Amino acid sequence: MAMMEEGARSCLIQSRSSLEQDIRASYLMDHMISDGVLTGDEEDRIRSKPTRREQAAALLELLLRKDNQAYISFYNALVRESYGDLASLLHNSLPLVSPEAEKSFSDGGTRYVQAVLSEGGVPQRPVVFVSRPALVNRVREKLYHLQKEPGWVTVFGMAGSGKSVLAAEAVRDHALITECFPGGVHWLSIGQLDRADLLVRIQSLCFCLEQQSQEKDPSSSIHRPPGSLEEAKERLRFLMLRRYPRSLLILDDIWDSSVLKAFDIQCRVLLTTRDRSLADCVSGSKSEVAVESGLEEGQALEILALYVNGKPQRLPEQARSIVRECKGSPLVVSLIGALLREFPDRWAYYLHTLQQKKFKRIRKSSSYDYDALDQAMAASIQVLSEEHRELYIDLTVLEKDVKVPAKVLSVLWDLEPEEVEDVLQDFVNKSLLFRDCHHRPYLYYLHDLQLDFLAEMNRSGLEVDLKHSNQWRLLRGGRLIIMSRTE
C-alpha cells in the first residue's frame, strides 16, 4: 500500500494531542468505512478500547500507517461531524491525488452523483482537470453548514481563477448530496443578465423543476410560466420549499446584487462571483471561500503534463519557471498547456514570452479562448462607478510584483487616506485588486493579468491622465515620483 505524504503525516502527528482530546472515533469511522479506507475488523479493534480518548488514539495510530486517501477521508469525516476547528488544522496539508484517484474516491456512488448533477444541469469536469483538494474541501465544509438551515456560501475570486470548476467539483460528492441535499442540486448560469433575460432563466428553471416533480408525482401539475420577476420569485420559492426541500441552488457568475435578490427565498445557495460583498444584500446565514492563491506548483505542473500527455516529473526544466510566471492562474496555465500541445518544442519560447509579459502575442498564436478573460476584465471594470473606474485605470502606473500601501495611492489620487482605503476595499471585494494582510499597514497589488489588461486598455501609458493634469506620476519600487510636464 502507498504511504501517506510526509507533510500530511507530520501534520497529523503535530495535531495528535488536540485530536485525541476532542474527537469521538465512533462518529468518524462510519464515514471512513463508507469511503473504503477502514475495515470492519479495524473498527472493532478501535471500539474495544475502554475510553473515548483511547479509541481516538487508536484511530490516529492506525491512520498514520495508511495512505493519502485515508487522510482525506478522515478530514472529510471531521467536516461532516462538525469538527470544523479540528479540520482546519489539517486542511493545509491535504495531499494532492491524481485525477483518476480523486474521481473514484470522492464520487463515492458515481452513478448516483452523476444522475443527480446531470438532472440539475451541473457542468461535467473539464477535459483537463486537476484536483484542488484543500479548496474543494473548504467549500464542502461550508456547504455542510447548510444541512440544517438555509443560507449562502459565496465562492469569490478574480476572472480565470477557476471558481465555476471548483463549485461543480465541491458538489461532486456522494455523502454531501445524500446527507445535505437529498432534494437535488440545481445549477443556474447567470452572468450579466437584464431583468427580461433573468425572468426567462428563472422561468426555465421553474419549468424544469415542475417537470421533474410531475415525473415523480403524476398528480402534480405544470403551471403557466410566471409573467413577472416577482411572480417568478414566488413560484421558485414554492418549488424549492415545498417540492424540493433541502436542495441546493448554485448560481454561477453573479454580478449584480439586484439579481441576487431575486433568489432571496430562504433556500440553500452556493454562488460564484468576483464581488466578495455581493451577498450582503440578502438575508440568512452567510459564509465564503476565497479563491485567491490559484494553483499550487504541483497542480499547475500536472495540468501542463496532462496537456502534453506526459508526467510532471518528466517535463522540461522550463516547466517550473512557466508555472511561476503564470502566478497560479488556472486559465493562463491552461492557455500555455493548449499551446504546448500544438507546439511541443516551444517551452523556452513561451517562457520568454511570459517573462516579457507579452500576453497579447500568446493570445494571437492560440486557438484557446483567451479573449474571454479580456471580456471578463472589461466587464469587471465597467461595473465600477465612473469615479472608481478612473481611479482603477490610474493603477496602470504600478509595476509587476510591486506592492504599495494605501498612503502611496493617497498621493497618487490626491485623496484622504480613509477615502483611499474605502476605494481599495471596493476593488478588493470585486477581485480587481489583491491585499497582502501579512504587513501593517496592508499592502496592495495587481495580478500580472490585470496589469497587462490595463496596459493594453491604456496603451499610451499615462496619456489619459495627462489630458487632465499638468503632472504625470510614476511608481518605481513602491515609491511615487511626480514629474512636472510642460504643455
TrEMBL record:
SMART domains: CARD. The gene is apaf1. This is Apoptotic protease-activating factor 1 isoform X2. It holds the Pfam family WHD_APAF1. Keywords: Apoptosis, Hydrolase, Protease, Repeat. PANTHER family: APOPTOTIC PROTEASE-ACTIVATING FACTOR 1. Residues 4-93 form the CARD domain. One of its GO terms (molecular function) is ADP binding. InterPro entries: Apaf_helical, CARD, DEATH-like_dom_sf, NB-ARC, P-loop_NTPase, WH-like_DNA-bd_sf, WHD_APAF1. One of its GO terms (cellular component) is cytosol.
